[in-house]
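Appendix B. Worked example

We walk through a single record from start to finish. Start with the input: the chain for N-acetyltransferase, Amycolatopsis eburnea, length 113.
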Amino acid sequence: MTAEMDVRRNGDTGSYEAVVDGQVVGMIVYHVPRGGQRVTLSHTIVEPGYRGRGIASRLVKHALDDLRGRDQKLTNYCTFVADYIADHPEYRDLVDDRFPGRATVPDREPRER
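Next comes the structure step. The output line below is what the pipeline stores for this chain.
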């Protein structure tokens, strides 16, 4: 990717956003249930013209690092996030044991990066 990309958490829209040249080109949709101890991630979306550039992976990494920094657990409904965690097992501890979500993290060895 040639343009600079920023990733930010947008509490107004409930999304983590990837921004290139002032335009949102990707996002992860999230919801914070009452209490705020966990976050539900539901979708990862990247605009077609920006796919294949690692934007989704950077979004997921940013979101998971943000959850860790906020001491929140993850309830996951996004298969991309589940695959990312399978490939980056250092994030498995973020998945809420009581409410893991429907997109479970595959029990496999991480793929080579």
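Two observations about the output. Helices lie at 55-69, 79-87. The beta strands are 5-10, 15-20, 23-31, 38-46, 73-76.
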